[in-house]
């Protein structure tokens, strides 16, 4: 069953965030995942949205999504992101 990594982001340092994005893209490819949306235009239709960017990444299953998040490749990317964005993420099991 597919799994989705939903990342909600507010970029605070664009140059540093670009490093994170490039490293993350390489890690996503390694884990045979794909971006379904990567920071496209948002239109709030209900409630509040504390972030200005949403990324949805599809993985083949929950275990692969967890492995990606714990991987050395993604941990390196995450280090680049720490001073570049406010970030929240969840893994969601597909139906």
Walk me through this protein's architecture.
The protein has one domain: Alpha-Beta Plaits (2-Layer Sandwich), CATH 3.30.70. Helices cover 38% and strands 32% of the residues. Helix 1 runs antiparallel to helix 3. It starts with a strand and ends with a strand. The chain is globular. With 95 residues, the chain is of the alpha+beta class. It is built from three helices and four strands, in the order βαββααβ. The mean pLDDT is 95.
Give a nutshell description of this structure.
The chain has 95 residues and is of the alpha+beta class. It has a single domain, classed as Alpha-Beta Plaits (2-Layer Sandwich).
**Helix-strand sequence:** EHEEHHE
CATH class: Alpha Beta
Q: Compute the gyration radius: what is it?
A: 13 Å
Compute the number of helices: 3
Low-confidence stretches: none
Integer average pLDDT: 95
Residue fraction in strands: 25-35%
- Kindly report how far apart the N and C termini lie: 7 Å
In the CATH hierarchy, what is the architecture at level 2? 2-Layer Sandwich
Number of domains: 1
The shape is: globular
Topology-level CATH name: Alpha-Beta Plaits
Instruction: Give the strand order, joined by hyphens, for the main sheet.
Output: 2-3-1-4
- Structural class label: alpha+beta
| Overall helicity | 25-40%
**What is the count of β-strands?**
4
The largest pleated sheet is described as: 4 strands, antiparallel
How do the helices and strands line up, and which of them pair or pack?
Elements: E1 3-11, H1 14-30, E2 34-38, E3 53-59, H2 62-70, H3 72-81, E4 85-93
Helix pairs in contact: 1-3
